[in-house]
Design a protein that fits this description.
The complex is a heterotrimer of chains A (234), B (228) and C (273).
Chain A: H1 2-17, H2 20-53, H3 59-69, H4 74-85, H5 100-136, H6 141-151, H7 153-169, H8 172-178, H9 188-197, H10 201-233
Chain B: E1 5-14, E2 17-27, E3 31-35, H1 42-50, E4 57-61, E5 68-71, H2 82-92, H3 99-110, H4 126-139, E6 144-148, H5 156-171, E7 175-180, H6 183-189, E8 192-197, E9 200-206, H7 207-212, H8 217-227
Parallel strand pairs in B: 3-7, 3-8, 5-6, 6-7
Antiparallel strand pairs in B: 1-2, 1-4, 8-9
Helix pairs in contact in B: 2-3, 2-4, 3-4, 4-5
Chain C: H1 2-20, E1 27-33, H2 34-38, H3 41-53, E2 56-62, H4 64-72, E3 78-81, H5 84-92, E4 96-112, H6 125-135, E5 139-141, H7 147-158, H8 163-166, E6 171-173, H9 178-188, E7 191-195, H10 196-201, E8 208-212, E9 219-227, H11 237-248, H12 250-258, E10 260-261, E11 264-265, E12 268-269
Parallel strand pairs in C: 1-2, 1-3, 5-6, 5-7
Antiparallel strand pairs in C: 3-9, 4-7, 4-8, 4-9, 4-12, 10-11
Classes of the chains: A mainly alpha (234), B alpha/beta (228), C alpha/beta (273).
Amino acid sequence: MNEISASLQLAASLIAAADAKLYGIVALSLRVSLSATVIACVVGMPIGAWLAVGRFAGRRVLIVLFNGMMGLPPVAVGLLIYLLLSRAGPLGTFGLLFTPTAMIIAQSVLVAPIVAALTRQVIADAWLEYREQLRSLGASRPRAAATLLWDGRFSLSTAALAGFGRAIAEVGTVMIVGGNIDGVTRVMTTTIALETSKGDLPLALALGVILISLVLAINAVAYLLRGWAARRWG
Amino acid sequence: MSSYLQLSGLDLVEGENAIVRDVTLELAARRTLILGPNGAGKSTLLRLIHGLLRPTGGTVRWPQPLRQAMVFQRPVMLRTTVFKNVIYGLKLAGVKDGERERRAAAALERVGLAHLGARPARVLSGGEQQRVALARAWALEPQVLFLDEPTASLDPASNREVERIIGEFAAAGTRILMTTHNLGQARRLADEIIYIDDGRVLEQAPAAAFFQQPRNARAAAFIREELL
Amino acid sequence: MNRIRRLLLALACACAVPLGAHAADEFITVASTTSTEQSGLFGHLLPAFEQQTGIKVHVVALGTGQALDLARRGDADVVFVHDPAAEAKFLNEGWGVKRFEVMYNDFVLIGPKADPAKIVGGQDIVTALQKIESAKAPFVSRGDRSGTNAAELRLWKIAGIDLDKAKGPWYRDTGSGMGPALNTAASMDAYILADRGTWLAFKNRQNLEILVQGDKRLFNQYGVMLVNPAKHPSVKKELGQKFVDWVVSPAGQQAIAAYKVGGEQLFFPNAKP
């Protein structure tokens, strides 16, 4: 119990001290995970909408596949991206390994199936309600999918948040493809892992407290915005 | 009067259930109301004609292609303004920018909602939403308008307003094909009645003749029961 | 259409920021070991190097075996590790250019104060290991092909213990870095072989302390190598060589000697002039 309360105090003093290094790490975490979430949404949401609205062979197989890929193990994704980006790998010439870009790519791969699967659920429900009206107005299926994505934007924020939560909290992929390089690819989760390795458990826990607070704050803001939007737009 | 729509031997079978059976009809009247008890297949027939459902047998033939629009029992509003909900239908119909705005404004004027154009559509009352749906249809300038129980979940005032707008469609030359189980509404709106029960058309007659003396016994029973 | 255009713009921005961020800096990637990173040595050494040369050093800290594998794939410019046998193999296969000895420290045998195997005070690591084995006292192994792991396995061999046969529940093969392995040992009051640098910087000691040290066989030599540009053209030859030259130069050697934790020197420079 002493260690936990000591960690809380340490977390508070770290935040209060506005330590530049800590802020750099927090900023990098946010940049990497937000970028990955944006990419995952741009890719995953149309896929999810198409799985909900489309009619094509293999649709059910793909739905099961994407639902299953929500649980991709980060370390396996990290290893796969590592092998692709390594100098000896097919994309080695770009020299992306151990850069924030590599971390963004890896987290996008990790998160896109989550966004796609959650989007499919949201859009499939809306499709039941809107289907006849949209078809009556002459909407093609791609057009209907686009309309439902726009119309479901407030509900879909949940899918984006789930993706972001997964990205900001995971350590497996960013450790492998980022290398946890001080000042370059060191993010909150890899810092926590490192401080745990050094046996500095209070500092590791304090960083964990900051990470959780950050995620909670973002979720709270999104929740309020969503509530406002629901009242405004119904 | 020559018919604008010809149905022959129309069937819809889902598994063991025949929902629409061997419907053969010619439609020519300005305002045709499809009457019948719940579960008779009225809504399904409307959807088969509009093309939302594919028949398992028979044909739907339009001698001349006509612009169509449909208004549903529960209006589907997008999460945007009233005005943009009307614009959306026009965009899908390929109406040009500029013309769209003009037609949307005129349609909202017509249903009496011009003052609500900037409001989010989904927070309106049920009656107002149904009028937005009618405006969306109006803007498309349909030659045939399908209405599926458009007043079933509305209060009496909204009901009157919707019936007024349907009258204006007809006055503007749009053919009306509408389902209802409300006899009073059918009396007020119909030129012609189609009575359907258990998926079959049992009677097609001018409205005045139908309400005076239905030829079909079950139609007669339906009128008696509804009146009680 | 506007919406889509805005979305694409946002996407482009999101991608462009990380791509552009590091293009301007001159940097090299050094594959090294957890002991050098986690003991804080690099945090002390690299700013001095950067100040003198303007070259940034990106350290990826892994076990020695993994660090060498990383270099074999061409993902590092320099390796800075501590397993002479593995380094010699790496060099013989042609992956490295030339190996320089940089510094040494030593391994220490850590154990709980209660010392169930009664090894405290001895200076003979071999006897200590034999006592642990016969007492079946809990022992935590890195089990990760690191330099420390290689040293540990070599010592068991010298002690005449065939681990394949002697292994039992007492021998915990954790497959983890030095720090995590120390955390595990601390929480189960186990014996463990550690490098002195990581031990001195380690904070979660609980009941652990040094029980055996000073045996010549606990010597821990670090070496540095430029990865062979003939094998991997992407290797930054000039910049990497500058780093190798610097750590074995008087300036680099003095910087290593100057690093202390709690007044205690962690690494002892021994580059051959």
